[in-house]
């Protein structure tokens, strides 16, 4: 791109190209006024869009400029340098408007001013504009400008006119600004008698690694005559991250120059969100709100170095929903200073301080009190405990253990199938079970899942009529579920999944009188995942992954009693034990620790089989089951979470069909449906096939 060949003089009288002059200006070696006439970049005819790239140097850059309406312009600066940036500039004798313009700077350098929108006229409006400055190399080099960066700047020259700068946003997250910031700035000159202005709903955000050395205004008004009025309501200044504002002053509203007019406002708020540090002065705020706070025992959040020229005496202080970033160092009766002002005789009013519950990380909450002590605003911890939302994690753990237990049904069913068809020899078997279950923990979590088992075994008979069957198997199960949780008065849904993989061995011995004994051993790994399980005070969403080994065994006794040639009843009692190992993981900065789980279940039931002489055998049964244990203990951030338990009674009803194509067929098929009530509620359906070699 061709640069202008105009010449300028530096302080030593040497002739320099415009590009060199701006470079000197950025380093402080030349007078700012000289560079304004360097090459202009105007995006008006380019669909209201102007872009400055690395190596580009301009005088003034416009997204759009127009006499009456300069709205909808965009400037994007990726490195490069310029003297001024105007997202939109309107200059008109009558109405002037510069709304909804956007200026984005990333590692760019500007000498004098950055305005999202500037409107100058008898009636001027600069609203809805956005200025965003990021990147560690961004810089505004002119020192002392009270409002060199403004979201919206509206100026009037005439009496009985109006100026408006509403709903503008300035966000600075990186770089160095040596001058001031205003979300909305309204100005009336000496001819603007009886003018009226408003600057409402503007936002200034300073965060990240930004450094600001000037005044920071939510809204700023400057009128030169005494009969003017300016209303400035609901403006917001937010400080966050690691921003360095130690050489800055914070103003909710105010005037940057001699103003004879009347200024009023309400709802203007300073928000401290994850920041701590020093600032020169603070004034012009109706409210101060503490959101995110980095906990430091006996530390300071807002340190005002020039308390004599600051004023928060009439401000409402809201410390009722503080969120601390980390719970590991917080203890009962600890305290820290939220506001400290040096040389301040204007003590905060205790009647205007709100305090209440706090949260820390995702795992801790408690009670706190904000109070004035020796002129400081101090926050004291009066109680600390595990957050209510962590109970959901313990509930999920209990339900995961219950899901493993469902696999034992398939093991027991497979042993039945090995003996049912009166065929002997090497056998292979496979079964698939679909289930939908709800367990009576606090949240009544419902699981939709599939379980499978495949194996090989042998069934044989002895001369006295006794029978023995055994098998080795691989098992797998997968399930999913939804959860609903609450944190900071916000309700949210989570999604979870469960997977287990394992294997084992099972055997059954039955004598000639139908009395049998059976048992199994199994082991494997359980994995559970949750998305959006927990929230923290900033609204961030967290999930987690957990893996635990499991081991199980069961033993059963029963008797098959012949009722007739083609019907029988199986009366049985079975005991199931499953052990799930402990696990631990971190969510954010908080450590979660699962205790091991022991599940001990006793099932007593009966099953009637009919049509035993036919290809299609039918059966139906009832059973009662009691869980003696199933307790899921957990600690979050070292604090005990209310224990969840699967203990209780369940009732089962079943019906099934067994099909063997012929007496000498190697195939046998089984269909089974079960319904559950009590501690476990729901239904299951499984299909099983057996092949005898």
Report on the structure:
The chain is mainly beta and 693 residues long. Among the domains are: 268-386, no CATH class; 411-692, Lipocalin (Beta Barrel). Helices cover 6% and strands 59% of the residues. The chain has two helices and 55 strands. Strands 3, 5, 7, 10, 13, 14, 17, 18, 21, 22, 25 and 29 form a twelve-stranded parallel β-sheet that branches. The longest helix has 30 residues, at 391-420. 49% of the residues are buried.
List the helices and strands and how they pair.
Elements: E1 7-9, E2 15-17, H1 18-26, E3 41-42, E4 49-52, E5 57-66, E6 74-78, E7 81-91, E8 95-97, E9 102-106, E10 109-120, E11 123-125, E12 130-134, E13 139-140, E14 149-156, E15 162-164, E16 169-172, E17 176-177, E18 181-188, E19 196-198, E20 203-206, E21 211-212, E22 215-223, E23 229-231, E24 236-240, E25 249-254, E26 262-264, E27 269-273, E28 277-279, E29 281-283, E30 287-290, E31 292-293, E32 300-304, E33 316-319, E34 322-324, E35 335-341, E36 353-355, E37 357-360, E38 364-373, E39 376-386, H2 391-420, E40 425-439, E41 446-461, E42 467-487, E43 490-510, E44 515-535, E45 541-564, E46 567-580, E47 583-587, E48 590-594, E49 597-610, E50 616-627, E51 631-636, E52 639-645, E53 648-659, E54 667-678, E55 680-692
Parallel strand pairs: 3-5, 4-6, 5-7, 6-9, 7-10, 8-11, 9-12, 10-13, 10-14, 11-15, 12-16, 13-17, 14-18, 15-19, 16-20, 17-21, 18-22, 19-23, 20-24, 22-25, 23-26, 24-27, 25-29, 27-30, 28-32, 30-33, 31-34, 32-35, 33-36, 34-37
Antiparallel strand pairs: 1-2, 35-39, 37-38, 38-39, 40-41, 40-55, 41-42, 42-43, 43-44, 44-45, 45-46, 46-49, 47-48, 48-51, 49-50, 50-53, 51-52, 53-54, 54-55
